[in-house]
Specification:
The chain has 476 residues and is mainly alpha-helical. 82% of the residues lie in helices and 0% in strands. Bound molecules: beta-D-glucopyranose.
């Protein structure tokens, strides 16, 4: 008896309507190990910079910090065509290997040149991984829980940042005399542990079923679907794929960069630009430097670094906790209300921190600034951070998801780089309070942008989201 026919829509519909099992959650955790390393490797450099014993001029010192972002922009750009050609999983496995290599190399670096090469490698891995992770997740996640599953990426980023600060804090506490010898190597090298685990486990992940069907690899698609709990025969997958191929042969379908896709790309890129230029990474990257002197308790350089690292660790803990609410609410409230609320909170609390710096002194000043910055970070975490990476993963059609998502990630990293580079000059020219006021104004603009241009995508399948953008483009 031949298997009953099933259209691609039926197969993906079954995938979309599943309840995520433990397998889904562990798979997502594995996909987001790169997110953990993204957080860990962007945050650890700040706490070792003062102790790297090699001679580095200003340019190369800056490169050690910001180079990861520039490398990430390049890595993201390269990942796009590669992942559409070779698959999501292959790239995720390769990334874990590069992460591990970069971390080990930084730990044993005999000179500045090797350390710079190692950081560049890590940057490339961060970018490539951030370009693909949420796309991979969006391609198997059930529609009603896609937000939460993709939000794990943001959560892992925040946990990575937190672990980087806590690890530095503990290592400097345990061996303060080894700061310039063993400690900094250990802090940079630790990232190799999750990377190696990720590399081994990622080889066992299923490839994205949506990508496999698009490639005509029906047997592999059938196996991947079975792992995800959707039992269909190879013939059924093949038939669905053939049906799809015949619809895609229509001339109007051959145009991949349709007006809707272009519109989605612009919306995601602008969102990402706002995600960065509203200043989230100023407290996260410059925290130890900006806040260390306020809290210092002792007169050595290590004491100042430890004080700054401790305060920043508190802010990064707030970041982790607040991301939990994003995870809970993203599929209930939806992307739009969370994003508008998040940018609204950022605007308000940037002003609170700025007011603390301007009008208060002593302990009151420290308290108001800390409360303002912590709530600024919390607002970002609830509505802005993960929402950006989620819409990047879900907003594009499967055929070009890799390229479009990667391009958007490149924009995110370039904006990240620009703000990190610009911040020191902005701070010395205008003062921190005014810089915070500028961030607040930009966050208000972001609210207007979201309210006008970001469609609500909660509970829709990724194919429906593509149609939403096409309809919006046709109306514009
Ligand atoms: C952003 C990073 C930021 C992190 C903080 C991410 O969504 O892309 O730039 O450091 O959130 O949690």
């Amino acid at each position: 008896m031949s298997a009953p026919t099933m259209s691609e829509r039926d197969i993906l519909g079954t995938l979309d309507s599943r309840t995520p099992t433990r397998f889904y959650w562990s798979l997502t955790l594995l996909a987001t190990i790169g997110g953990f390393l993204f957080g860990f490797d962007t945050a650890n450099i700040g706490s070792v910079l003062g102790f790297v014993p090699f001679h580095l001029n200003n340019f190369w010192t800056g490169y050690l910090v910001a180079g990861a972002s520039l490398g990430a922009a390049a890595g993201a750009l390269a990942a796009g065509p590669l992942t559409d050609r070779f698959g999501r999983k292959s790239l995720l496995v390769a990334d874990a290997a590069i992460y591990a290599g970069g971390a080990l190399l930084s730990a044993v670096a005999p000179n500045a040149a090797v350390l710079i090469i190692a950081r560049t490698l890590i940057g490339l891995a961060i970018g490539a991984d951030s370009a693909i992770a949420t796309s991979y997740i969006a391609e198997y996640a059930p529609a009603k829980r896609r937000g939460s599953l993709a939000m794990l990426q943001q959560w892992m980023i925040t946990v990575g940042i937190l672990v980087a600060y806590v690890a530095a804090w503990v290592i400097y506490k345990v061996a303060p005399d080894q700061a310039g010898t063993l400690d900094w190597r250990l802090i940079l090298g630790l990232g190799a542990v999750p990377a190696i685990i990720g590399f081994v486990l990622r080889t066992r992940m299923p490839e994205s079923p949506r990508w496999l069907i698009r490639q005509g690899r029906y047997e592999q698609a059938q196996l991947a679907l079975a792992k995800l709990g959707v039992d269909v025969s190879t013939e059924q997958v093949e038939q669905a794929g053939t049906e799809l191929a015949s619809t895609e042969d229509r001339p109007e379908q051959r145009r991949r960069w349709t007006p809707g896709v272009r519109r989605a790309l612009i919306v995601v890129c602008v969102f990402f630009t706002f995600q960065q230029i509203t200043g989230i990474n100023v407290p996260l990257y410059y925290g130890p430097k900006l806040l260390g002197p306020l809290f210092q308790n002792g007169d050595s350089k290590v004491a100042e670094v430890v004080a700054g690292v401790q305060v920043t660790a508190i802010m990064t803990l707030v970041n982790v906790i607040a991301t939990y609410f994003a995870f809970r609410w993203i599929d209930r409230a939806g992307r739009r209300p969370l994003a508008m609320g998040g940018f609204g909170g950022m605007a308000a609390f940037a002003l609170v921190a700025g007011a603390g710096l301007t009008w208060f002194t002593g302990n009151a000043r420290i308290t108001v600034v800390m409360v303002g910055l912590c709530l600024f970070i919390a607002s970002f975490a609830v509505g802005v951070g993960g929402t950006g990476w989620l819409i990047q993963g879900e907003g594009f059609p499967t055929e070009i998801r890799g390229q479009a998502a990667a391009f958007a990630a490149t924009v995110d990293w370039l904006a990240n780089f620009a703000i990190i580079e610009a911040f020191p000059a902005m701070e010395s020219g205008l003062g921190l309070a005014w810089v915070l006021a500028i961030f607040a104004a930009l966050a208000v603009l972001a609210i207007l942008f979201v309210s006008r241009f970001l469609p609500e995508t909660k509970h829709h399948s990724v194919e429906e989201i593509t149609r939403i953008f096409e309809r919006q483009a046709a109306r514009a």
